[in-house]
Amino acid sequence: MSDGHGPSPETPPGWSAAQPPPYSAPPASPWTAPGAPEQAPYGQPYGQTPQQQPYGPGPQTPHPPYPQPGHGYLPPPALRPGIIPLRPLGLGDMLDGTIKLIRSNPKAVLGLSAVAALLASVPVAVGQAFVLDEMGTALTDPERVQSGELTTMGGLAAQYGGALISYAVQFVVVTLLTGVLTRILGRAVFGGNLSAGEAWQLVKARVPALFGVVGLMVLVMGVPLAAFVVIGVALAASGAGVGTMLGVIVLFLVLYVAYYLFFRTRFAFASPAVVLEGRGPIDAMRRSWHLVTGDFWRVLGILLLTSLLVGVVAGILSVPFTIAGTLFGMLGAGSVANAVVSAVLIAVGATLGAMFTYPFEAGVAGLLYADRRMRSEAFDLVLQTAAIEQQRQGWVHASADELWHPSNSARS
């Protein structure tokens, strides 16, 4: 590097050799004519000597280093050392960045997601297999149902018991997975990769705070449900009619959906704040609320659209296995082998769907968090400065982890 305007002699991993650093002349610009006796200063056009002044009448008007607005030129592209350009992001940038996150580190991202999805789907699959087996027996041998020999209570108990176990497992593994994926994403922004073990070492100290956030979210979302139960019991005790009960249920569902979406959006960045900024549970939720303020509808829209997209893709992946498992369970009722095959197929379908859903939703939420910091705190300037330093001096990627601390915000 001769004058600080050219690219580094060696390009660190994760950088494109064709990517010019920002705020500098393009690497291939021929600022000096071949064979010219004297090099023209930076900012003067090719082939002219310092005495020639193409802009303005006097020597006080130099050639602007970059084309000015209205001249038909575009500004230089934003620096992109990793999965996203270091500037405020659009929806396309977030989706593309999440896909790049998965492709750049599939072993850690998809591997961990597959383990988490499998652990959460197995209990549900086993319960559904029991229900399907009893339903198939009821269809093929209705006399056993009429005689009372066969009851679906056992299958229903297995199904709901499996669902409860699955929710408990999801509470643990999805919380841990979100933390690990967020840490991997924080490094991938700069073009660095983390193995699952390395990410876990960085996240494990933040696990209690992550569970604290999830626990507080459960309480926030559970308050309306508890109120609904109390109101329902009071109405039933007062002898309210069926129409009144149905009206109350419909009204509650509408209000609860709005309530859920509001608080889900407001606290969407609590987990990234815990992992990347080192905050406690309450402080992280307060931080998320502050970041969402001023851009609530955009954040809500992106989260809803992401959920819709991943839901469609997850359904496409899981539906064939679910249908096959259902057919095996019902048509081969009474056979242990068929019940096992049914449970396996249902579990595989659920695992494939969730293996895609978990990292994609975590990735978009993490990048949306970064975007909100760029827009509200000029955090893109911090990232660009660090990326230039990394490119020029071969900065160790691990140093980038500290940049997410809020003290590094340009407007903090």
Task: Write a concise keyword list for the protein shown above.
globular, 412 residues, 12 helices, mainly alpha, transmembrane
Structure description:
This protein is an all-alpha fold and 412 residues long. 65% of the residues lie in helices and 0% in strands. It has one domain. It has helices spanning 91-104, 106-140, 142-146, 153-188, 196-203, 207-237, 242-266, 270-277, 281-292, 296-331, 336-377, 379-393. The longest helix has 42 residues, at 336-377. It is globular and about 70 Å long.
Quick summary:
With 412 residues, the chain is an all-alpha fold. It is 65% helix and 0% strand. Helix 2 packs antiparallel against helix 4 (153-188) and helix 7 (242-266) packs across helix 10 (296-331).
Q: Return Rg in Å.
A: 29 Å
Spans of at least 5 consecutive residues with low confidence: 1-64, 145-151
Domains, number: 1
The SSE string, one letter per element, is HHHHHHHHHHHH
Q: pLDDT average, as an integer?
A: 75
> Helix/strand/pairing class, anyone?
mainly alpha
Largest sheet: none
Estimate percent helicity: 55-70%
- Number of helix segments? 12
Shape: globular
In what range is the share of β-strand residues? under 5%
Number of strand segments: 0
Quaternary state of the chains:
single chain
Tell me the span between the first and last alpha carbons: 33 Å
